[in-house]
Amino acid sequence: MQLNKDIQTNGSTSALLLQSDCCMQPFSVHNGECLQWLKSLPDKCCDIFTDPPYNVGKDYGVWNDAMPDEEYAAWISDVLTECKRVANVLIVYVPKKWNLLYWNVLGSEFQEIILPFRPAGAIRYGYSNQFNKLLTNAKPKCKKPVLNVWDNMPQPGLGFFFREETYDHPGYTSEAITKRAIMQLCVSDVIADPFTGTGTTAVAALDAGKKFIGSEINAEYVAIAEKRVQRFINAPKLF
Ligand SMILES: C[S@@+](CC[C@H](N)C(=O)[O-])C[C@H]1O[C@@H](n2cnc3c(N)ncnc32)[C@H](O)[C@@H]1O
Predict the structure, then answer these.
(1) Which of 90, 100, 132, 170 is geometrically suited to a Cys-Cys bond with 58, CB 3.0 to 4.6 A?
(2) Strands 46-50 and 27-31, how do they pair?
(3) Superfamily for the 39-208 domain
(4) Is the CB of 60 under 6 A from ligand 1?
(5) How confident is the prediction along the chain (239 residues), in pLDDT tens digits per residue?
(6) CA-CA distances (angstroms) from residue 163 to 54, 55, 232?
(7) Is 75 in the pocket of ligand 1 (CB under 6 A)?
(8) Whose CA is nearest to atom 26 of ligand 1?
């Protein structure tokens, strides 16, 4: 299976591919800035699962993750507005500092319904266990009230023997959480991630039998994502 690397700076290849989705490649990543790429996509063409940069000074190589707060707030508001326009279901990680901003931009139809449990190891802020938040407009697929979809979730820090490859990425996202969120909540055939990083969302989307499109500003991460996806595609499958 051939991977499709979208190297056009305006991201138009992804938009074209979406219009004829029967011929669409299973994986397409635009190496560039996400806002222009998102603007090239049609309304309600996919679902989005994403873990954005939080402007906390992480070293993403290319992107300045320590811009003035007002600049970050204006930029991420535009990105979230575009995500909401293009996605049927949108699932986004929320940093504590920007929780209210994200929620205000996305609107009250978004719920903090998913709080994956993350043992922090050392005590932080006086608490030994922490919760990460996702904001989503997804409706649970199951008709019964959903109490907890995070049982048996292998996560870094949980149990002595669990290790997850993080590809030396400073903001790596848990593959287990991503997979479960996509399986439980997504409805579209195409999953997008404007902040693809090492391709965690891509692997989770393909594992769920869906196609993936994304953007990533750092070419080194794009290369890791491509290798990771190729390895996933080539791996023997039981079913
Ligand atoms: C929190 S990480 C996402 C990690 C990813 N989910 C994974 O598991 O590898 C955020 C990513 O967004 C990328 N990024 C930052 N600003 C960007 C922008 N304006 N456009 C596209 N990608 C960007 C960074 O290079 C980084 O890889």
Answers:
(1) 170
(2) unpaired
(3) Vaccinia Virus protein VP39 (3.40.50.150)
(4) yes
(5) 334 444 333 444 454 455 455 568 899 999 999 999 999 999 999 999 999 999 999 999 988 899 999 999 999 999 999 999 999 999 999 988 899 999 999 999 999 877 666 655 556 667 666 677 899 999 877 777 766 666 666 665 555 555 678 888 888 888 888 998 999 899 999 999 999 999 999 999 999 999 999 999 999 999 999 999 999 999 887 66
(6) 24, 27, 18
(7) no
(8) 197
For ligand 1, the distance from its centroid to the CA atom of residue 35, given in whole angstroms, is 12
User: Angle at CA 173, nearest 5°, toward 99 and 66?
Assistant: 55
The residue to mutate among 56, 59, 178, 195, having the most atoms of ligand 1 within 8 angstroms of its beta carbon, is 195
Smallest CA-to-CA distance from 135 within 194, 180, 94, 87 is with 94
Task: Report CA-CA distances (Å) from 185 to 98, 130, 135.
Answer: 23, 23, 12
